[in-house]
Fold each of these.
Amino acid sequence: MVLSSRTFCAHVIIINFLLLLSCNMVYGTPTDIFCLESIKKSLEDPYGYLNSSWDFNNNTEGFICRFTGVECWHPDENKVLNLKLSNMGLKGQFPRAIQNCSSLTGLDLSINKLSGTIPTDINHILEYVTTLDLSSNDFSGTIPVGLANCSYLNSLKLDQNQLTGQIPGQFSTLSRLKVFTVTNNLLTGQIPNLRNISADSYANNPGLCGSPLPACQAPPSKSNSAVIAEAAVSEFIVCHVN
Ligand SMILES: *[C@@H]1O[C@H](CO)[C@@H](O)[C@H](O)[C@H]1NC(C)=O
Ligand SMILES: *[C@@H]1O[C@H](CO)[C@@H](O)[C@H](O)[C@H]1NC(C)=O
Ligand SMILES: *[C@@H]1O[C@H](CO)[C@@H](O)[C@H](O)[C@H]1NC(C)=O
Ligand SMILES: *[C@@H]1O[C@H](CO)[C@@H](O)[C@H](O)[C@H]1NC(C)=O
Ligand SMILES: *[C@@H]1O[C@H](CO)[C@@H](O)[C@H](O)[C@H]1NC(C)=O
C-alpha cells in the first residue's frame, strides 16, 4: 500500500507532536527526579536506606513523594519540599546535586558521616532554605559566609562537626533566625550579635567569646623580654643570611 502524500504529511505531524510530547515528559518536569537520582548517586549508602526505597523505575506522577525522607509540596507532584535523611549512615561530601531540587525549603542531613567542607556557594545551592540541619557529621573547614545570604533561614544546626574559624559576623543579618547551634566544634573568635541565641548553642568550642559567653580578652600586650627575644631572633636571621 502506498501512502498518499496527504496522509504521509499527517503522519509526520502526528509523529512530531508525539515526539514533542515525549520530549516534554522527559525534559519538562524531571529536575527534582534528576536531583534525587544525582543525590543518591553521590552518596555512599552502606545500610541501603536509599537503595531500598529510592526506586526511579516507577514513573507515576508524585512517585518520588513516597521515597524515604522525601516530603513534597503536594503528594501527586514531583516537587520536593523537605529532604530528611537523618541517621542513615550516609557517607561522602555535601550533596551539591541538591541545587536542582529548586523548591526545597528544608534539609536535614544530621547524624551521618558526611565529610569535607560545607560548600562556599551554599546560598546558591539552597536559596530558599528555612531549616538546615548538618549536625553530627564530620564536616570540617570554616562556616561559609554565604549562609548569611540564605535570608529565609530560621533554623541552622551545625553542632557536632569539626568546624574551625569564626562564626561569620554577617550572620547578624539573618533576621528570621530562631534556632542556631554550633556546640562541639573547633570554633574561635567573637560571636556575632544574634538576638536571643543562648550560651548553650555555643558550648564546647575552644575559642568562642563574647556575649552570651564571657567577653573576648584583648590580645596580651608583649612583655619587654618577648620584644627583646624577637629582636634577637630577627637579628640572628639577618646575620645568618649575610
Ligand atoms: C540495592 O538493592 C538491591 C535489591 O533491593 C540489591 O540487590 C542490591 O544489592 C542493593 N545494592 C546495594 C549497593 O546495597
Ligand atoms: C508505582 O507507584 C505507585 C505509587 O506509589 C503505586 O501505586 C504503583 O503500584 C507503582 N507501580 C509499579 C509498577 O510499581
Ligand atoms: C543540575 O541539573 C543539570 C541538568 O538539568 C546538570 O547539568 C547540573 O550538573 C545539575 N547540577 C548539579 C549541581 O548537579
Ligand atoms: C551575599 O549578598 C550580598 C548582597 O547581595 C553580596 O554582595 C555578596 O557577594 C553575597 N555573598 C555571597 C557569598 O554570595
Ligand atoms: C527570646 O526568647 C524568649 C524565650 O525563649 C522568648 O520568650 C522571646 O519571645 C524571644 N524574643 C524574640 C525577639 O524572639
Amino acid sequence: MITPLMPNYARSELAFERGEGCWLVTADGRRVLDFGAGIAVNVLGHAHPHLVEALTEQAKKVWHVSNLHNVPDAERLAKRLIDATFADSVLFCNSGAEANEGAIKMARKFHASRGEENRYRIVTFEGAFHGRTLATIAAGGQKKYLEGFGPKVEGFDQVPFGDRKALEALIGADTAALMIEPVQGEGGLREVPTEELRYLRDLCDRHGMLLIFDEVQTGVGRTGKLFAYEWAGVAPDIMSIAKGIGGGFPLGAVLAVEKCAAVFTPGTHGTTFGGNPLAMAVGNAVLDVVLAPGFLEDVQRKSLLFKQKLAGLVDQHPKVFDQVRGAGLLTGLKCVLPNGDVTAELRKENLLVVPAGDNVIRLIPPLNVSDAEIDIAVGMLDKAARNLEVTLVRGAAE
Ligand SMILES: *Cc1c(COP(=O)(O)O)cnc(C)c1O
C-alpha cells in the first residue's frame, strides 16, 4: 500500500523533535550531531535565538502580502546583498531550482531583448546539479534525474569538467550563457580552480555570453567568503542563491548586474510567495550574523582546523577514506567503502552527514560550529571507521 508521504525519498529511521545549535534531538532524547545542516541550509544551526526572534516578531505582524505591494524588508535585504556582491538588483523566490529557473529565463530574455531570439542555449558541466524542475534537470544533464520525464527541455549542452577544447567547440552563435557551480555540491565537492573560473569569465566576455554562477550550495559563507566567487576574484553576470540565505526558512534569490536584471520588466516573470515578509525577516537576520565582523574569518579558521583533522583520518583509515574534498565548511571525504554504508555507520555513532556523487560524504556543519564540536565529529568519524574496518576483516575471514 502507498505510504502517506510519496515514496520519492529514502529516509533514515530518525525523526527529530527539536534542535539546539549543531545538535538535533529525537522525541526519546537521543542527541545527534548535525554535520548535514539540512543539506547546507542551517548555516546558524537549529533554533538560533536571533533567527527565532526575527521570525516570531514578524509572525505577529504580517506574513504575506504578495508582490502586488511593497515589502520594505525585501528592499532592505536586496540592498544588503547588492552592497556585499557584484549585483545591482535582486529577485526573491523560494528554492534553489526556482532561482536557477529565474537565472536561465533571464539569460535567454537578455539576448531576446537584443533581437537575438535564437540565442538561448546554455552550456553546463558534467556532474552539475541545478535542481529538479524540468529545465534544471536538463541543465544538470544527469541521466538518473532525466529518465522517464519525457523529452529533455531543449537548449542545454553539457561539457566535461575542465575540457576547454570541448567547451570552445560547443560555443556557437546560439549560445546565450554558461552556468556553473564554483564548487560542485551534489556532484562530489569538486572545486573549479581559480584559473578556470577566470578563463570562463574571459571566454564569456569574448563571445558576448553571460556567466551564471549557481551558488545555491556554496553561498552565504559556506566556503569562508560570503560567496565562493570572491575567492577567484571573478564575478558572474547572474547568480542563483538559496539554501543558506534562509537559515532553514525556504528562500532563494537571483542576483544580477543591471543589464540582465533590466530585462525582467513588469509581467515577464513572477512568483506568488517569493520575498514574503516572513522569509525576508529571516534572511535579514541570517545576514546580521554572517556579515558580523569576524564571522567569516572564523569559518575559514575552523575549516582549516577541520581539514587537518580529516587528513589525519584519511591517513589512519585508508581502507575507509580516500581523500579530503571541498572548500571552507563545504567539506567532505571521498570514501573507499560505499558512501551509503559510511553514512549509515556514522548515524549509529550519532553523526549526520550527507552523501554526494563520486562516492563522497559531505561534512557540512552549521557555520557557527564550535571547535569542540569539530573534535566530537572527528572522534565519531574515527569510531565509525574502526567499526567498518572490523566488518571488513570479518568479511575477509568468512
Ligand atoms: C540544492 C541545490 C539546488 C536545488 O535547490 P532546491 O532548493 O532543492 O531546489 C540547485 N543548485 C545547487 C548547486 C544545489 O546545491
Amino acid sequence: MSTNTATVRTTCPRDCYDSCGIVVTLAGGAISNVRGDPEHPVSRGKLCPKCSLGYNGAWRDPAARLTRPLRRAGAKGDGRFEPVAWDDALADIGSRLSAIAAEHGPETILATHYTGTISQLAYGFPMRLVHRLGSTEVDPDTVCNNAGHVALGYVYGDSETGFDPRTARDAACILVWGANPSASGPHVDEHWLRAAPGCVVVVDPIRTETARAADLHLQPFPGTDAALAFSLLHVIRRDGLADTAFLAEHTVGWEELEPLLGPCTPGWGEQATGVPAALIEEAARLYGEGPSLLWLGQGLQRQRTGGNVIRACALLPAVSGNLGLPGTGFLYLNGSASRGIDGDYVTAPHLARSARPDKVSQMHLARRLEDVAASRALLAWNVNIAASNPEQTRLRQALCRDDLFTVVLELFQTDTADLADYVLPAASFLEFDDLVVPYFDLALSAQVKAADPPGEALPNQEIVRRLARALGFDDPELREPDDSVIETLLERSGLGLDFAELAARGTVPLGDEPVIQFAGLSFPTPSGRVELASARAELDGHPRTPLPLGDERPTGDRLRLLSPASPWILNDSFANDAKVLRQAGPATVLLHPADAAERGLADGHEAVLENAAGRLVLRVVVSDVVQPGVAVSHKGRWPKLEPGGATVNALNPGEPTDMGESTSVHSAEVTVSPLCG
Ligand SMILES: Nc1nc2c(c(=O)[nH]1)N[C@H]1C(S)=C(S)[C@@H](COP(=O)(O)OP(=O)(O)OC[C@H]3O[C@@H](n4cnc5c(=O)[nH]c(N)nc54)[C@H](O)[C@@H]3O)O[C@H]1N2
Ligand SMILES: Nc1nc2c(c(=O)[nH]1)N[C@H]1C(S)=C(S)[C@@H](COP(=O)(O)OP(=O)(O)OC[C@H]3O[C@@H](n4cnc5c(=O)[nH]c(N)nc54)[C@H](O)[C@@H]3O)O[C@H]1N2
Ligand SMILES: [Mo]
C-alpha cells in the first residue's frame, strides 16, 4: 500500500548548544518519524539519542501529552483534575487574576518561565501579558547563568557577544573551561571541538568525555577556578606572553591587577586548586601563545563565588591579547541580538502601565511563595520548577498552598503541573512555526509546523492571546498573530529573508566568513575598554578587580556535590519518556574509590545523601572520573518518577552566588553514608 509521504524541515529548540536541524517525515498527514537533517551542518542526519527517543516517543504520544485544559478537582497536590472547556478555563482564570490584581495588586501575581523551549515566540511572547498585567517576573537566568552574565558585564560590558565558532579553524588552542559539551552539546563536541585543528585544553573537576578526549585536562577542586586563572595569568606575565600593547590601549586596571599576580605561582596554584604546577605551566603556555579561544561554560559559574570565578577567567583573553583577531575571543553564549533579533519586540515591555516590579530570584522563590501577602498567584510556562529549582521540599510545600492560584502551561503532567489549579495544554515545537536563534553557532533557524497539536493543545502564545482577551485587555500587541511577529522580527533583523525562505533553507548562517568578536576593539563598558578593574563592580559592593580566591574545601566528612547535565536528559525534559529512562538507568551518585571505601560503600549500594536542605537515597557508582572530596549526581529527573519522590535538587539549599543572585548548585555539600548503616 502506498502512503502519501512528505517531509518538513525544522529545528530543535531545546536549551542546548547544538540547535540541530530536523527532518520530520509525514505519512498520511501524521508524523511518522523525526530525525536529524542530513544537510544540517550540526546534526548531519543524526539527532542525539535523547531527542531521537523523546521526539519519536513521549513528545508524540497523545497518552503522554496534555490534550485538554484541566482544572484541579481535589486538594492541592493529590493529583486530581477534571477536563474543562477552554472558554470556561480562560474565563475563570481571567476573573481570578483580575480579582487578585484589583484586591492585592498585580505584583502579587508571579510569572516564572525559562527555556523549556527557546524559540522566540513560545519563549518570549507570554511576557507581553506579564508586562501588561504588571506582574512580578521570577528572574529566569537566576536558575542557570546569571552570575556569569553580571560578571562578564563588568569586564566586557557584554556577555552575549561570543566568538564565532567558525573561527576555530584559526585557533591554535581552544580552552574549554567548565563546559561539558559531550553531554550539553553532543554535536558541538563531536563535529566542532574534536574536529578543530588546535589543541584542546579542558578545565573540569570531572573527567568528562570532553575532558578525556582533550590534549590536556586540568582537574581543579570545584570552586577554585579563580585561583587557577590567576596562576595561569602569573605564568603568562612571567613568560612574556602578556600583550602589553593591548593592555595599554584597550584595558583599564592593569596596574591594579598586575601586583595581585605576583604571589600566584604555579606552586601556589597547585596548593589552591589541586592542579599540578606542571600542568598549569603547560596550559598557560598553550593558551598564552595563541591564537586561542576560551569557552566559559555555565557549570563553571554555578558556585558560591561564581561571579568572581567568571571575572577572573575573563581576564585571560585581555591579558594575553587573545581578542579581536581570527582564532581569538571568548564565548559564554551568543545572544539573539547578534542575529538582529529585537527581543523587546517579542516581549513588549512598553505594555507595562507603571514601573515594573522588581524581579525575584529563583533562589528566593520558595521563600516568596511562602509569603501569602506577597504572592497570590503564579503563572508558569516552559519550566518545571518543582523539579529544577533549589529547595525542592520547601518549594513543593509552598506550591501546595491552597490560596496560591497557580496556572501552568505544559506539554506534560509534570510535578509542577500536579500542583496547579489549572493546567493548560501547550503545543510542542513540532506543531507551530517559530524562529530559533542558536546560542552557539551564529545562525538563524526556522521552526516549522509539521502537524496539528494533539487534542486541544495550543502554542504558548495563542494561550496568552486568549487569556489576554479573557482579562479584557485589548492592546494590539496582545492580539498580534504569530506570522506578523515572525515577519516583523525577520524584517528588522536585516538578514533579508522572509519566513518562507528561511523555512526552505532551515538554517541560515550569519554571512560566509567568521565574525570577529569585538572586531573594532571597542567595548560597551563605561570606559569603552576591557575593565580589568571596575568602578561599577565596586559601586555594586564587589572588589574592584577579581581576586585569586578559591572556595573552602568541605569540612568534616562532607563532599561537594556537583549535579551537571546528563547526556540522557535535558534539564527535566525527556525524563518522562520510558525509553529514555531505561537508557539513563536509576539515579546515581558517583564517588571516588577512596571516598566510597571510607564510607563502606561499593558499586550498586544505596547511599543516603544529606544536608540541611534535604535527604536523598541514590545508587552508588564508584568511579575515578571524580576526584576525592567530590560527588556527582546528574540533574534532570522528575521527583514523582523517583522512588523517594525527590531529585538532587532536594539537596540544593539555593544559596545565591556572589553576583546576580544566581544559582550556586555546584557548591552544595552533603554527607554520604550507607542506607542501612
Ligand atoms: N541540580 C541542578 N539543578 C539544575 C541545574 C543543574 O545544573 N543542577 N541546572 C539548571 C538550569 S541550567 C536550568 S536552565 C534549569 C532548567 O529547568 P527547567 O526550565 O524546569 O527545565 P526544562 O526541561 O528546560 O523545561 C521545563 C519544561 O518546559 C516544558 N516545555 C517544553 N516546550 C514547551 C512549550 O513549547 N510550551 C510549554 N508551555 N512548555 C514547554 C517541558 O515539557 C518541561 O517540562 O534547571 C536548573 N536546575
Ligand atoms: N544533555 C543535556 N544537555 C544540556 C542540558 C542538560 O541538562 N542535558 N542543559 C542545557 C542547559 S540549560 C545549559 S545551561 C547547558 C549547560 O551546559 P554546560 O555549560 O556544559 O554546563 P553544565 O553541564 O552545568 O556543567 C559543565 C561542566 O562544569 C563542570 N563544573 C562544575 N563545577 C565546576 C567548577 O567549579 N569548575 C569548573 N571548571 N567546572 C565545573 C561540571 O563538572 C560539568 O562537567 O547545557 C544545556 N545542554
Ligand atoms: Mo541552563
